[in-house]
Design brief:
With 251 residues, the protein is of the alpha/beta class. It has a single domain, classed as TIM Barrel (Alpha-Beta Barrel), CATH 3.20.20. Helices cover 49% and strands 17% of the residues. The protein is built from eleven helices and eight strands. It has an eight-stranded parallel β-barrel, surrounded by eight helices. The protein is globular. The protein binds pyridoxine-5'-phosphate. Pyridoxine-5'-phosphate (PXP) binds next to β8 and α10.
Length: 251
Amino acid sequence: MRQLGVNIDHVATVRQARRTVEPDPVWAAVEAELGGADQITVHLRGDRRHIQDRDLHLLKQTVNVRLNLECSLEPDMLAIACQVRPDQVCLVPEKREEVTTEGGLDIVGQQERVAQAIRQLNDHGIEVSLFIDPCAVQIDASRAVGAQAVELHTGAYANACLDDRAGLSTRTGRQAAAELLIINHAAQHTLDRGLRLNAGHGLTYRNVQPVAAIPGMEELNIGHSIISRALFCGLRQAVADMKSLIQTAAL
Ligand code: PXP
């Protein structure tokens, strides 16, 4: 069955806007679990713009489902990951000026560095997923460096869905279908290489089902759309709604 990883970074973003104590992402994790989350996902960024070290340590102690830590390849981040020991680390690229993770991690261009990071994390009992663009060379390189899973970047598909909706696409209605085809091919390539198949970024209540329906899809990590809906209906309900979409898509 498809697993829903709920990314709670944006709860911490609201707290950090005032540098205060609320809303607490640890509370959010409890609500997400009650709504049916299979995994709690957080991104500890070098600039600590949302999730703080304190959050990660408390989440490790309190989360009852899987804990997935997104982080960069920087040595200090890997050291924190090895100390906290989440169930999974998803290695992501990180640029200070970006609003959110913009592209996939380049595995091809830094194979030895990624392989070393994976060995270090695996030695601490942590599974490693690599957040990559949906293309064959990055998948092959992910396999070569010893990753257990890849998370295919769905951002281009998500943006195409928005463009199609807004009538901005030059080939209205077809752009998202083209991006979806790319993800489908990459998904098959991932499974053929024996890697676990995850996906995420920009997924919403409107665009999630075709991705959730891809055969072999194990885990979807979704943040912004769920937290946005939670403002109006509460996080427990928002998570339950997304979980239901994912499960029915795969039937
Ligand atoms: N997966 C990864 C690797 C990410 O970096 C992010 C964004 O933090 C997400 C999933 C969730 O993206 P969104 O907030 O657009 O759902």
